[in-house]
Amino acid sequence: MSTREERHTVTFEINGARKTVAAEARRLLVHLIREDLGLTGTHVGCDTSQCGACTVEIDGLAVKSCTVLAVSAEGASITTIEGLTPGTDLDPIQAAFHEHHALQCGFCTPGMVMSVRQLLKDQPAPSEHDIRRGLAGNICRCTGYHNIVRAVESLASKGEQS
Amino acid sequence: MSQAPAIRQIGQPLRRREDFKLLAGKGRYVDDIKLPGMLHMAVLRSPHAHARIGRVDLSAARSAPGVRLALSGQALDGKIGPIRPNWIIPGSKVPSRPVIAIDRVRFVGECVALVVAETLAEAYDAVGLIDVDYEVLPAVTDEEVAVRDGAPQLHDNVPGNITTIYKVRGGDYQKVSREADHVIGLRVVNNRLIPTCMETRAIVAAPELDGTLTVYIGSQVPHMHRRWIAETVGIPEHQLRVVAPDIGGGFGAKMHLYSEDLLCPYLARELGAPVKWWESRSESHQSTSHGRAHTERIEVAFTNEGKILGLKVETLGNVGAYLSNMASGGPTVNTVNFGTGTYKIDNYEAISRVVVTNTVPVDAYRGYGRPEGAYIAERAIDAVARHLKLDQVEVRRKNFVQPAEFPYRPYGSMGVMYDSGNYQGLLDKALAAFDYDRRRSECEALRGSGIYRGIGVAAYTHMCGMAPSRRLAVSGFDRGGWESARVSIDSSGRATIYSGSMSQGQGHITSLSQIAADVLQIPIENIEVVQGDTRQVQAGHGTFNSRSMAVGGSSVHVSSQRIVAKAKKIAASMLEVDEKDVSYSAGAFSVPGTDIPPVTFSKVARMAYVGHKLPDRLEPGLDETVFYDPTGMGSPSGVHLAYVEVDPETGIVDILDYVAVDDVGTLINPRLAAGQIHGGVVQGIAQALYEEVSYDADNGQLLTGSLLDYAVPRAEHVPNIRSLFQETPSPTNPIGVKGIGESGSIAAPPCMVHAVLDAVSPFGITHLDMPLTPPRIWAAVQEARKGAGQ
Amino acid sequence: MIPAAFDYVRASSLTQAIDLLRNDPDGTKLLAGGHTLLPSLKLRLASPALLVDIGDLAELKGIEISETGIRIGALTTHAELFASLPLNEQLPLFRQAAGLIADPQVRNRGTIGGSLANADPAADWPAVMLALQAEIEIAGTSGFRTILARDFFVDIFSTVLEADEILARINIPRPTAGTRFVYRKIRHPASGFAVVGIAIALRLSQNLVSEATIGVTGAANHAFVGEDAADFLIGKTLSRENIDQAARLLSEATECLSDRYASADYRANLIQVELKRALLALTP
User: Fold this and answer.
1) Which residues contact B209 (CB under 8 A, 6 or more apart)?
2) Contact partners of B by the rule of 3+ C-beta pairs under 8 A?
């Protein structure tokens, strides 16, 4: 059996790049992402899986990376906020947030954007109710959600047209 | 270089210039900072609300892996601290507050010991190894209980647990209360809240090779933090650099001086290495200041027609275990001075007592005192309307201060002056947008079929900017009311603004650029804004009390004007005409009525730096710094309306509509202004319906210790907010702005409470205390039904 | 925010996982979705010596639908239960309940087995399992045993699971054709857990109730079956009076929990209100 101090080797793909990292068993995925890989766009806003600031995509699903062990990421394909816009452009969700003033302090924003990706994947044309329910896993303290809902609505209507 | 803007930038709904990095995950918050050799601090917090500290055994922690240092309060006694408040109402008894508790703890969460280790995990592990003997003492958490005879006493120099008694008086309340047709009393509770910035507090202190110290901290007030840390830790202020990078929300909570703000700088110097502290969310609930926590007893005297003759208020403001930074000012000056709200109430009598209890210190939170003050005025006038069965709108209209009465000093106050406003205009605009009459009849009609809908109304006004400096001395506020701005033009004519204000998400880079662009007449993209670095920004007070546009923005405006004035002198010299013949428009200096070719701003800037053709005795350069001290404070106001449906069987409230009409003076950027209203209103709705800090009254344990039990609203809990504006420019500053950040959180709580009370009025319910949770509403309905014999 | 150190083993077989549990029953915890376990480790409310990750165990995965019933692997996530079309064609209760659990991110990770084994008194699946008369399949040292869901929950956060046993699968008998289902829940505003949740499976024959099962969560120390209320309804119409009486019986079936947020009276009231509303929703 392994000892507690032992580091486990984890291999996964993140934002398209393959990585192998040694991690203590107790290391949370969010800390691995932020500290070992320097991808600090993923934030930690709580410790009980309520706020969603740490939301990333694992194998195409939005998850709270503060509630996943780094060692569990073995073989996973992870996308963080930094993976959406490798260049200097904004992706459509980010652009909609800018257009509709859907962010203020910006701390919840990366997690919110990652959740919106999931929401639009599940429901390409969500109603306002669907949007508000679909963002239940993310807390924003600045915007009152009003403009976040507007931003998502703008994407939904585009979805219907196409 | 692109052409000067053809349109005025102030008033344009520009999209934010700061968005890109935040959207791309490239923001830089304190916890994102990682320095070579950085150590991590973790804090052991008191598990008891009130206890004597016996032996603190640090031996196991000290020998744990990675640990560099472990300390208890004893070791710091006399070295750093105590933590002094920055606002001390004259006559206050100030309890001594050590940086780490020495012999006694007074709230669950107070620092008892600390560990510095190589990793955060090691620091947490070692904290778990510290053994402390406590002798538990009786605790008191409630302000009404704390002032009773026999209540546990917190501080020897604070008898009766009251630090401050503050009185306000105007007219003769006693006389009018004898003469009035009606006098009614009510007791209202302003529930204790947790500000809940999504970014918790964090700090990194890093010793530099040159002997200076850099402190990275999410501070709303970087220059104030520099002063406080310097004074409390004993570092020469000029050798301390405070850097506030991106901040994940502040709402007042990030403008105080906390133990950790002092410990990291102290430890970094002791250990010769960067030291970081990051606050977990559950830790934050017991270590970052709370908000509100008042109980008010109100008496209102009025005529049969609903005209209010007088108001009497007794406030008990719970400030927790110590006087935090601004704590003695909140329940006093900031609350009871504003108790008459938007109404003409000439006879007013208020007393506020500031009460210490075994709870987390309470300090500024979005609105600080003004939500509590507006709640007094609004709950009172609503009670009058209910008592007389008069329409809530008409009673307000009858009592409003009239437009012609501005500037208006309520109850003859020396301290409060409302600079301008038109409350009737706000009300009319709100009623029209809300379709009040139709909804009023809709409510009545639906009640017959067992559907309980209600309309809430609330009006508010307050004062923004904490100024001018000379007036602040009277209230014991140990800082100025000015803000500084430096506008520095480079040799190409582009501008960098160094502002003492500090954005925590408000979008100052965009709004301050708009202010400067109008004066400088250069395109927005030719303007950069620097904030949050005491090495770069000359001086400042930072962002609180909705002051950034009124004071910080005015400072940028005046500074930009000085730039243009100097540029004009240089242009005159270049054009070889008299300065008074030169006019500046569309980014060019010209001599009207002549065929002299104009000279552009950028050419003038170039000349300012090459200095070849400057007027006699004019210094080269185009760089102006202003310390703008306003002559007065602007008074935003507003009328908000809410439409709700209450399910009496479950107590669940459905918010059907919310209309906010606010007068915040000149709108710099309507898009950002609406964003401020949305966010403020939702924090106000949160106070009204969801959030409440709970303590166990017996042992002082914090019962809302995490986001699993403290209900910060999600998107599904709140409605769309229809935000509209009325602009009456403030006469107190050159751009006419009043302040906006706090408006929503002031208006929304009474508005929501009134809506719910209106909805359940058929049951005979006339009072409910926040938060209006479903169980609480349901219990009130049950009680009322029982009383009615149903 | 950082758990105390522990060992971690990714189990490659059910037997290995059970052996590890048996080696150190007190110090070993199973890790599935981790959405209950990890927060408690982060807050250091628990500090096991070993975490056994059962995420790779194929025998704990999947949804199988056969003539006789439905078999759900313990590792099936809330999101998978929400999304499964064949499952929800048979038992739309899954979609209704899963959609009300926590939030999308948590649903993507949290598992039904984890939820049931944790036996949070306010969790949703226990009520659903009771209404569906599910059977819990438990793997242990001597093979598998099964137990009815109604006998599975013992007390607050307590089930019949022994320290060296693993909740492996859930078996649900195929419902009689025409059975209607409903799950209603009042959510706690912060945690999203049920203040009260009620799951009902009900069949009507010529407007008379022929079958009824009611599961209730959130109200008591553990989820329970509303037997008296269900029995009362059998053979009756869903008239206002009958519904009222069933609601009364259901609220009398337990001593309700009382906490800072909601009193016992409030919960008892919610049981009545929610049952009435649920039954009205089922009335043709």
Assistant:
1) none
2) A, C
Q: CA torsion angle for B113, B116, B121, B125 (degrees, to 10)?
A: -40
Instruction: Delimit the domains of chain C by residue range.
Output: 7-53, 58-173, 180-282
Residue A22 lies in a domain: yes
pLDDT tens digit sequence for C134-149: 999 999 999 999 999 9
The answer, for B580 touching chain A at a CB cutoff of 8 Å, is no
CATH number of C7-53: 3.30.43.10
CATH code at position A73: 3.10.20.30
Q: How many CA atoms within 13 Å lie on the side-chain side of A8?
A: 26
Are A96 and A141 in a shared domain?
yes
pLDDT per residue over B303-325, tens digit each? 999 999 999 999 999 999 999 99
Residues of C that are catalytic:
12
Fold of the domain built from segment(s) C58-173? 3.30.465
Percent of chain B with pLDDT over 70: 99
Residue B1 is predicted with a pLDDT of 42
What is the DSSP-derived secondary structure letter of residue B427? H
pLDDT digits (tens, 9 = 90+) for B275-311: 999 999 999 999 999 999 999 999 999 999 999 999 9
Query: How far is C-alpha C156 from the chain's CA centre?
Result: 13
Indicate whether B571 belongs to any domain. yes
Q: Are strands C143-148 and C135-140 parallel, antiparallel or unpaired?
A: antiparallel
Q: What does the pLDDT read at residue A140?
A: 98
- Of all residues in chain B, the one with the smallest CA distance to C263 is B775
- The answer to whether C73 touches C62, Cβ cutoff 8 Å, is yes
Tell me, yes or no, whether A149 lies in a domain. yes
Give the DSSP H/E element, type plus range, for residue B55: strand B51-57
Q: Buried b / exposed e across C209-233, counting CB within 10 Å, b at 16+?
A: bebbbbbbbbbbbbbbbbeebbebb
Q: Which residues of A touch C3 (CB under 8 A)?
A: 26
The CATH code belonging to domain C180-282 is 3.30.390.50
Check which CATH number belongs to the domain holding A146 and give it. 1.10.150.120
Q: What is the CATH classification number for the domain harbouring B536?
A: 3.30.365.10
Stretch A15-41: mean pLDDT? 97
CB contact under 8 A, C190 and B711: yes
Which are the contacts of B34, defined by CB distance < 8 A and separation ≥ 6? A35, A38
Quick check: C10 and A71 CB within 8 A? Answer: yes
Average pLDDT of B701-726? Answer: 98
Q: Do A136 and B715 touch (CB under 8 A)?
A: yes
Residue B112 resides in a domain: yes
Distance CA B10, CA B671 (A): 12
Tell whether A154 and A119 lie within a shared domain.
Answer: yes
Cβ-based burial of B42 (10 A; exposed 0-12, middle 13-18, buried ≥19): buried
- On whether residue B184 sits in a domain, the answer given is no
Quote the minimal CA–CA distance from C124 to chain B in Å.
Answer: 16
In whole angstroms, give the CA distance from residue B723 to residue B705.
Answer: 34
Predicted pLDDT at A161 = 42
User: Which residue in the set C3, C105, C108 is minimally distant from A26, CB to CB?
Assistant: C3
Q: What is the ipTM of this complex?
A: 0.97
Domain with B103, as residue range(s), is 33-137+196-287
DSSP string covering B614-632, please? PPTTPPS--EEEEEE--SS
Query: Do B522 and B488 share a domain, yes or no?
Result: yes
Q: Give the model's pLDDT for residue B104.
A: 98
Please indicate, yes or no, if residue A31 is contained in any of the structural domains. Answer: yes
Q: Which residue intervals of chain C are DSSP H helices? A: 14-23, 37-42, 78-83, 85-90, 93-98, 104-107, 112-118, 125-131, 149-152, 227-233, 240-251, 264-282
Contacts 24+ apart (CB under 8 A), B440-447: B443/B758, B443/B759, B447/B762
pLDDT at A5 > cutoff 60? no
Average pLDDT, rounded, for chain B = 97
In a shared domain, residues B51 and B123: yes
Domain boundary residue among B287, B316, B344? B287
